[in-house]
Amino acid sequence: GQQVMQIPQYQHVQEGEDFTTYCNSSTTLSNIQWYKQRPGGHPVFLIQLVKSGEVKKQKRLTFQFGEAKKNSSLHITATQTTDVGTYFCAGNQAGTALIFGKGTTLSVSS
Amino acid sequence: GAVVSQHPSRVICKSGTSVKIECRSLDFQATTMFWYRQFPKQSLMLMATSNEGSKATYEQGVEKDKFLINHASLTLSTLTVTSAHPEDSSFYICSALAGVLQQAEAFFGQGTRLTVV
Questions:
Q1: Residue A31 contacts residue A25 (beta carbons within 8 Å)
Q2: B102–chain A Cβ distance below 8 A for any pair
Q3: How far from chain centre, in Å, is Cα B100?
């Protein structure tokens, strides 16, 4: 079945450093979505990418969808303590359930 | 964005009892809802796909007789954990698809933290 791999599992950075998490799917995806989950909270939708090679930005966050629609990345520029949490990618094919990666837990020290 | 309401947010039950969790789409109709389970420090694992008016589709390894899913209307899906045991203690979360098929966005409920004692 479809699998979504995500690396790294954990990442610790100093405030102000950049951070990137990578996501790879075993199959071509219809779309990929990114979520952020704070400790004790539920996943919150960040963004959806649909087109091959798509790049979207949200302030300090940059999301990319690979040309083959099988991989994606989330890059945070100049991390802040408010960025801490676990970032999940999730992909699916049209109308099917999202399959989540294992997540990357980001910690930021000031 | 669309709102999905999940209730209860926390529940503690005795071993052997059953617990029902509700997932409602408040401002849209959802023909398909999904139920996930998340153990501590792990990712969300899909348990089943709930389709309005038909039987749910369960993922491999998920007991359908233990996790009863009912999707009786376009805005409500329920998950009942029957004869709960301590190993069923987990964070259960539902999601509903809103929007056009190819670009449907999944909206999540707030989750239910189940503790079986």
A1: no
A2: yes
A3: 22
CA pair distance A11, A86, nearest whole angstrom: 10
Are B106 and A100 within 8 A, CB to CB?
A: no
Closest CA relative to residue A67, chosen from A78, A54, A57: A54
Residue B67 and residue B80: Cα distance in Å, rounded?
6
The residue of chain B with its CA nearest to that of A43 is B108
Among A35, A42, A96, whose Cβ lies nearest the Cβ of B110? A42
For B25-71, the DSSP string reads ESSS--SEEEEEEE-TTS-EEEEEEEETTS--EEPTT--TTTEEEEE
With bands split at pLDDT 50, 70 and 90, how would you rate the model's confidence at B104? low
Higher pLDDT, B95 or B2: B95
Query: Taking residues A65-83, what's their average pLDDT?
Result: 97
- Tell me what the mean pLDDT of segment B19-43 comes to: 91
Tell me the residue type at A13: V
Residue pair B23/B96 in contact by the 8 Å Cβ criterion: yes
Please provide the size of chain B in residues. Answer: 117
pLDDT tens readout for residues A35-67: 999 988 888 889 999 999 999 999 999 999 999
Dihedral over Cα of A61, A65, A67, A70: its sign: positive
Strand partners, A48: A33
Check: CB of residue A27 under 8 Å from CB of residue A78.
no
Residues in chain A: 110
Interatomic CA distance for residues B92 and B54, integer angstroms: 21
